[in-house]
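ARCHIVE RECORD
Type: protein–small molecule complex
Small molecule: pyrrole-2-carboxylate
Source of inputs: curated submission
Record status: active
Notes field left blank by submitter.
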Amino acid sequence: MEPLAWAELHGLVAKECLNLMEAMRVIDSHTEGEPTRLIIEGGPDLGGGSMAERRDRLRDEFDAFRRSAILEPRGSEVLVGALLCESEDPSCDAGVIFFNNVGYLGMCGHGAIGVAVSLAYLGQFDLGTHRLETPVGIVNVDLQSENEVAIENVPSYRFRESVSVRVPGMGTITGDIAWGGNWFFLISEAPCELIVSNAKRLTESSEQIKRALKDQGITGEDGGEIDHIEYFGPGKAPDADSRNFVLCPGNAYDRSPCGTGTSAKLACLAATGKLAPGDDWVQESIVGSHFVGSYRLGQPGQVIPRIRGRAFVYSEARLLRHPKDPFRDGIV
Ligand code: PYC
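STRUCTURE (tokenized, with ligand):
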């Protein structure tokens, strides 16, 4: 067969196949090591309403879409998805719903930084401040350069101090409960050094703590599950104030210092008077990357955290779902 005819035939077959498939267009980035998959086309029609209402509709009616975008074979447990939506609030530039391998997040700090850098990569965000509507409130994102972003997160606060939980095989563990856009249990003493080679031990012990909190009915203020567990230890870099390990809801650990986790930490530092408004707090992650956090005062008892970090786009792709693919909705 003539090479040209072969190519044409081949092209045709490929085109026909593509017509059968559903495709979503994604931009993948990582923020201080933690990946974000921004979905810019191909999401379900969620209609109007607040971002919380649309997040609920996505969860109740289109959860297969989340699984397809995030689970293997197209994704992994480490990925956080961000579905780009039109905002309801006219003062916002975009709306976003964050999710992971097991469900939906209120906010995601590393994700918001990744979204801003990805939208800049697409030419949709200029340098300067933009507003993102999330299911738990509005987040200001200040794009400072191609890769540097400072977010002003939703109001954050320490809900309870020094809460003890009995953990089978570990004894009594004490920590603070704080909101940073998700619910966190913050523990100042880790069972071992916060280094990647200890990730298995840190993951298993924090999973046990998460389970014990749930079993003993210890929740966030609104009854919300405390689905993020955070250990703290001394920083390793000379300028780091602290290092953390953050267990995410699907039991993967955050490679970044976790934007909402750092916000929860800032709320606790403010509550104990250990950090003054406007002062910097350098939070190092388990992989050695860092966020620079600070806060201003919000409503009584609340702080408005500011988290600065870097993100880099590493891929743009069309994810395809062939109707005959047994794993078109991911491997559950
Ligand atoms: O950066 O807020 C965050 C986050 C939450 C879960 C993973 N990253």
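CURATOR ANNOTATION: The domain at 22-153+314-321 is CATH 3.10.310.10 (Diaminopimelate Epimerase; Chain A, domain 1).
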